[in-house]
From TrEMBL:
Ranges of residues in domain RNA polymerase sigma-70 region: 13-76
Subunit structure: Interacts transiently with the RNA polymerase catalytic core formed by RpoA, RpoB, RpoC and RpoZ (2 alpha, 1 beta, 1 beta' and 1 omega subunit) to form the RNA polymerase holoenzyme that can initiate transcription.
UniProt source species: Nonomuraea marmarensis
NCBIfam families attached to this UniProt entry: PRK09636.1, sigma70-ECF, SigX4
Domain of life of the source: Bacteria
Domain (RNA polymerase sigma factor 70 region 4 type): residue spans on this chain: 111-160
Protein name: RNA polymerase sigma-70 factor
Family per record: Belongs to the sigma-70 factor family. ECF subfamily.
CDD domains hit by this protein: Sigma70_r4 (cd06171)
Keywords: Sigma factor, Transcription, Transcription regulation
Amino acid sequence: MTHPSPDHDQQVFNQHRNLLFSVAYRVLGTVTDAEDAVQDAWIKWSAADRSKVADPKAYLARIVSNLALQRLRSTQHQRETYVGPWLPEPILTSGDTADAITNTESVSTAMLVVLETLSPLERAVFVLKEVFGFSHAEIAEAVERSETAVRQAAHRAREHVRARRPRFTADRSQQRDVTERFLAAATGGDINTLMELLSPDVTLWTDGGGKVRQALRPVVGAQTVAAWFAAIGKVTYQGVGPAEMNAELVEINGGPGVVFRGLGRVIATVTFDFDADGRITTIHNVANPDKLQAITDGTTRDIGTP
């Protein structure tokens, strides 16, 4: 019997690499951990008897899910003791196609924040079932649990997410327009326009990880949040003066976002969540330099669900 060549095995793995990263990133919320899980999956794939693998895609997805779940469990304590709010690591994405809406919602900062409130098992099950459409039997094998346990975890996770993440049709062009207006108002110090764009009970979450000065608790209310952003054009931040600060509108985690740069480095990212009327309800601001490497690298990720 002829065994496939190492080149063929590499080719098969590379064919599914985007899928593996997409699964791992949604389970973990961090780029480095997700890439490590994909690398570990390659090691396991290389060592496996691949002649017995009937469906490489499903096999690899099961491996990476299990690895991501193990990694998530091992980072739980670290996240629980994190200084200030823990937010997912932002990534640059491209989701211009019509069928990208579901994909991008499942990788949005707001959704990943909700997934942080699930147990590691519930999170892995939710991602595999709701986002990637795996059967309960396939998931049971991936997470090494009974099918009954997986069904129960899937139900709990679905109810939990539904309660915290109401679904409505996103108008992407409206969201981009609001983000553009928000950026212009913030850099111009226009507090009145900012107030118009923000929901009255808007919440700003900032993640500095204790590395840079940020609010350790959520900032709530349109007046306070508007004042926070109106100061952007007037104050020096992390040693970068207003004249040296550059703000660029980009797609981050499937939605419109802003990257702030200054003195040759990425300073922060800002992403938004909107209500059905297009007003900003939540702002997530990541300034921890350890979480900005993927933005600094400039790699645009394919986070689809092939």
